[in-house]
Each structure stands twice: as C-alpha cells, then as structure tokens.
Amino acid sequence: MRGAVLALTLICAVASPAAAQVADLRSTTAFRVCADPAMKPMSAEDGSGFENKLAEFFGQLLNLPVTYTWFPSGTGFIRKTLQAGECDVVMGYAQGDELVQNTNHYYTSIYGIVTRKDGDLASVDHLADPALKDHELGVIAGTPPATIMARAGLAKDLRGGDLTVDRRVEDPVGDMIRGVKDGTLDAAVLWGPLAGPQVKADPELQFTPLLKETASPRMFYRITMGVRLPEQEWKRELNSLIRRNQDQINAILAEAGVPLVDDYGKELLN
C-alpha cells in the first residue's frame, strides 16, 4: 500500500503545473552544473577536479559552455541548487537517492585501504584481516567500512573523521592520507574517488580496493548524474551520451586515478 501511495504521489507531481514549470528550468544555452567548490579531487572551483573534466567533456558533446553553481555539499545542497533551478545536473551522485532522478551510472567505484607501500599493513586486502588489530586506523564516521570494521572488533583502533563537513575549511580525507604518510596512522579506509587520485602520484603510498569483502554493507557504489525528478527527456539525453562515450569517460577517470570496478564490485577495471 505504501508503494502505491508513493507511486501515486509521484504521478500527481509530474502531472501538476508546478512540476511542469520545474521541468522547463533546464538551460538550452549552457551545461549548468551544481557542485561543491572544495570537494577535491572530485570537484574544485579552479576546475582541477576530475568531475570538472567530465563536465567539460559533456559540455563539448552537447556543444554547450559549462557553468557552475557552487555550494558546499551536505544539508540543503540539492534544495538550494538543483531544485531551485540554479543548475541542471549534479555530477558524481550515488545511485538511489530520492532527492534527484538518477541517470544511468557512468562509473562504479569502491572503498579501499590506503597504506604505506613499505608498511606492516601493505598486504591487507580485507577488513577482517587480524593484522589490522591494534593499529591506528582512519575511517570516515558513518561510511560503510566503519560499520564492518566495528563488527570486526576494531572499534578501539578507529580514528574517525566527520562525514559531513565544509570542505572549504576541513579536509578529513586529506588529513587521513597525510596521517598515513607521516606515520600517525597505520592505514585509512576511504572512498576510492576521494583517495585514489591523491594516492596515485605518491610513491610512498598505495590504495588497495576492497574487492574481497562479502559482509554487508557493500563496498562498491554506482555513480550517476542527478537531475530534477520530472525531467525525463533530459535524463534520456544524458543516458545516451553516457552509453555512446563510456570508453572516453573511463579514460578520464583512470587518468585521474579513480579506481574503477565492474558493476558487481568484483573486478578492478584499471
């Protein structure tokens, strides 16, 4: 019954005049992107993030200039950007969120372990490994690996960082990677798109994807673009671009150092 009520609500929303007005908000003169100005290495106001490069690529495919509405990710982000009509697409959006309509996913990535290449934990590739016990381990609170690590009896070893922060003034992922490098942390378990590009260029560090995890919650997630709920035509247009240009998308991500896995999180693709 609840599903029927939800479906009816969505149908009514699409049919309403207000929804029709929202659907008309998409610009035809620019590829308008909603983004966090300090979500490095994903998005950055200076255009250096790999999602910025992907946005430029999609802008070229659409023959449109790319413009940005910058707003810190977290509470209110979608409401004050996409839903407000200030921009038309959110790059790098996890599949399944009810605040947006998801396009088809354009990559799948995975959590992994950042360690020193010469460290005691360099060979660890799953979170139940006894070698992790009694070591200083960084993890972002509230993320899937934090749950699994706590269940594995590692709670006392965890050094947590906040999940929702203003990245213009705080950088918990970067702080943990620097902690592994300087030895104040023995390892950090982090989201691949945030950690992989930062580790790629460092000869002392490595990122090991958690391909062997079987416990819930899962370690891999499909990443989409988010558009407004009524905008079916816009979603289909983006889906077509993703489908026809997947190889080039993969190349941009691989060049950035984003760990790419298959849709089941079982095989590393780069």
Q: Can you describe what's shown?
A:
With 270 residues, the chain is of the alpha/beta class. It has 2 domains: 25-106 and 221-256, Periplasmic binding protein-like II (D-Maltodextrin-Binding Protein, domain 2); 108-209, D-Maltodextrin-Binding Protein, domain 2. The chain is 33% helix and 21% strand. It has helices at residues 2-15, 17-23, 50-62, 77-80, 144-151, 172-182, 192-200, 232-244, 246-256; strands at 31-35, 38-39, 43-44, 66-70, 89-94, 101-102, 107-116, 137-140, 158-161, 187-191, 205-209, 220-227. Strands 1, 4, 5, 6, 7, 8, 9, 10, 11 and 12 form a 10-stranded mixed β-sheet that branches. A two-stranded antiparallel sheet has the order 2-3. A hairpin with a 3-residue loop joins strand 2 (38-39) and strand 3. The longest helix is centred in the N-terminal third of the chain and has 14 residues, at 2-15. It is elongated. The model is unreliable at 1-23 (pLDDT under 50).
What is the topological layout?
Layout lengths: L1 H14 L1 H7 L7 E5 L2 E2 L3 E2 L5 H13 L3 E5 L6 H4 L8 E6 L6 E2 L4 E10 L20 E4 L3 H8 L6 E4 L10 H11 L4 E5 H9 L4 E5 L10 E8 L4 H13 L1 H11 L14
Parallel strand pairs: 1-4, 1-5, 8-9, 8-10
Antiparallel strand pairs: 2-3, 5-12, 6-12, 7-10, 7-11, 7-12
Helix pairs in contact: 3-9
InterPro entries: Quinoprotein_dehydrogenase, Solute-binding_3/MltF_N
Keywords: Signal
Protein name: Amino acid ABC transporter substrate-binding protein
